[in-house]
Amino acid sequence: MKLNKLLTGATLALGLATGALADGHEKTKVGFVYVGPVGDGGWTYEHNQGRLAVEEHFGDAVETVFVESVPEGPDAERVMTQMALQGADLIFTTSFGYMDQTINVAGKFPDVKFEHATGYKQADNVSVYSARFYEGRAVQGHIAGHMTESNVIGYIASFPIPEVIRGINAAYLHAKEVNPDVEFKIVWAYTWFDPAKEAEAASVLIEQGADVILQHTDSTAPQAAAQAAGNVVTFGQASDMAEFGPFPRVSSIIDNWSPYYIARTQAVIDGTWESTNTWDGIAPGMVEIGDITDAVPAEVKASAEAMIASMEAGDYHPFTGPINKQDGSAWLADGEVADDGTLAGMNFYVEGLSGDIPQ
Amino acid sequence: MDLSAINPILLLASLMVAATPILLAAIGELVVERAGVLNLGVEGMMITGAVCGFIVAVNTGSPWLGFIGAAIGGALLSVIFGVLTQFLLSNQVATGLALTLFGLGLSALMGQGYIGIKAPSFPDWHIPLLGDIPVIGPIIFQHDPMVYLGLGIVAATWAFLKYSRAGLILRAVGENHEAAHALGYHVMRVRMLAIMFGGACAGLGGAYLSLVRVPQWTEGMTAGAGWIALAIVVFASWRPGRLLLGAYLFGGVTVLQLNLQAAGAAIAVEYLSMAPYLATIAVLVIMRAGRAPGSLGQSFHASR
What is the pTM of this model? Predict the structure, then answer.
């Protein structure tokens, strides 16, 4: 989508020139770098909702710009550099694969604040932020374990990074808890967004007997494939995907970035911005669980909601021992709770999952 | 690894479906290249076809009208390419690349109001009698009509190029446009028609994604399928039969690698993901014979 970028660039330059002339005082400019199109209905869509919330909250005091479908890699560095050169004060880079590029560009522009989503490398002017999606995955696993009749749950994974592995482990642990016979079949799609490939992966999993599909890719294609199959349960990923409810989509994980984006923009305006490491979950509202539909039996819905409530209250952590690693070695003792460091770098499956994590 | 989880019948059946968008786009491009024109804008025409087809299908409620709309949309976009390269003699490679970029942007713009909407369903045909044959029935005779239309277009193209007079003229124009011109054939007219056919086929291929395979509209949904189609034309030595083989091979290995992954094969995922590309290139290179049409990619003007 180079053309988009060119056009955005041109509009940017134009906007900057006229904007500066029109009103003497400078607006705070916030840039967003997206990995997919804003219309993906999932991950990027929700980040863009966050951007729109910033615009609405601050009105004329803030100007936002975004570039969509930026590939993870050197091209991202060019896009970020351009944004910084065009006067952005705060730049959100919204995909794991922008991590090194963000650090590089931040080094060149010490006065510009950067916020990198889902990464772990911080600098004086680079904050990192992420959501504890695994809390939502635990709820999905709980419902999935109850809903499956074939005891086969298909999982469309994207890239073998800690974030995705955490999701698989959390979902598996909680599916296993309510259904000891459950089996996970995992397909690595090696993409965040490729509707045709996601549809194919979903059909393959369904053909191999899965009657619940969990996805960590961003498009709604797996939902459509499940709907065509008729008796397969899905969950909305990143966004509510409510158009596929009440069945096959029985619930969803919604990323709500708006409060964070507004707070960080406010911090830049006030001059109080500091490099931070934010990892929020269900309790502060960064992770929301979409409406659990009536396709889920009432008692399952009730137990899922109880689980959400206990996570919200801080009483329950999805990774609470006893948990063994895949090779049978002990990870967490009875009652022990996983520490954030291990979770952030999680690179192993828990006991019971089959197959290897691609290296 | 549990290979018994893979159902060979379902595997072969989904192969035909997975190959159809690439097959449709590639057969169109084959005709264009046999007429001596290199249109690198397949991806752009596919995505435009995908959005046009989706818009028409949603508004009329008929997937068939959607496919017609997709063909028209793809053909209209290709006319831009045709006018630029045939009448204004612009560079075909650069124009084709520009067409892809333009198509991606245009489709994103056109699709603004259509995100998150579902397409009208396009039921599979269960062909009576043939569809009831054990094994072969579910593999070959229980698909949606577009799968058969794609096969029909390939067969018709093969027969057209091999047996018809018009096909001979098209090939003559592609092999040596000056000689064809000297014989009194209208080089530009033939090429414009070929380009429009290519656009229409690419549009159908794109609409197959947005109306059947996915089925909904998302920006950038072709995700490189047009480039695969282009590569398959070259590796198939510009022959319809091999093109069919190449597209099915690519679709087959794509589906197979996902099946192997889901079955827990002990092969690294990276190798599996490479497999469709490697297998298709290897087989078509080993088989390859023949050469590119003589005038491929060259501009023609009667005064020269």
Answer: 0.79
